[in-house]
Amino acid sequence: MAYETIIVEIEDHVALIKLNRPDALNALNAQLMTELCTALKDAQANDKVRCIILTGSDKAFAAGADIKMMSEKTFVDVFSEDLFGPESDAIMRVRKPIIAAVSGYALGGGCELAMMCDFIIASDTAKFGQPEINLGVMAGLGGSQRLTRFIGKSKAMDMNLTGRFMDAEEAERSGLVSRVVPVKKLMEEARSAADKIAEKSMVTVMAVKESVNRSYETTLREGLLFERRVFHSLFATEDQAEGMAAFIEKREPQFRDK
Ligand code: HXC
Prior knowledge:
Elements: E1 6-11, E2 14-19, H1 30-45, E3 51-55, E4 60-62, H2 67-70, H3 75-81, H4 85-92, E5 98-102, E6 105-107, H5 109-116, E7 119-123, E8 127-129, H6 146-151, H7 153-162, E9 165-167, H8 168-174, E10 179-181, H9 186-198, H10 202-214, H11 220-233, H12 238-248
Helix pairs in contact: 10-11
């Protein structure tokens, strides 16, 4: 499919989705969000794809929702269309892992989009922020919710109330990102993480994603029970037998997603 605001490349088992509105620092408009959802749905449906990388440019992952698109809207407009609600729900429904490879600005909806991915690998030039307060609004796609759970109340309040940016080093220290690498190495690092994931059993990978995400939706007791039952259920797969046999036989496992 021909896209105008994103670039999609599928190489081996990895779908690379690159946000591509360079003149607007990859600001999220309706077309970009629709194209992104279509590309993610296609990646989910494509048996060849085992991991997805979402990235932007060196200068910006995404500088937020498109302010020019939003500036004339009224409450009734954004409420009625549920601005970016259906799109963020669709992103959260993707069951294959999504790595956000973030360089430059990840602000507002850009930071929130990165947080919708399963983990964030940042370049040393990355800057995260929820500066919506400077526009007379506030976060609308997780900046007051996911960010608070990821980095805690004090830092989330600081970011949302002052609108300040957080650099990559602070983001890693705070638990927002999993790794920081030099900007030139960002895509290599993301790719190598994706390749590692692609080697695993897809059934297990999706079970892990579901279980970790469940920890944000439920109590510890229920979450632990959910985890244990999913762990038990993986013994119904051929890949469990293969993984354990390969360990004992001191060889690499040959997973078949069964
Ligand atoms: C539309 C944007 C944009 C945005 C940048 N641009 N961010 N256009 N929406 N969010 C455009 C600029 O207008 C400009 O185009 C071009 O990109 C380059 O930006 P500059 O400002 O000239 O670059 P620079 O001086 O380097 O500053 C970079 C920046 C700044 C610090 C990232 O652009 C900035 O503060 N952007 C806004 C960040 C923000 O407030 N994000 C939150 C949005 S609200 P032109 O053609 O004008 O030169 C949001 C809500 C999410 O995300 C919830 C939705 C439900």
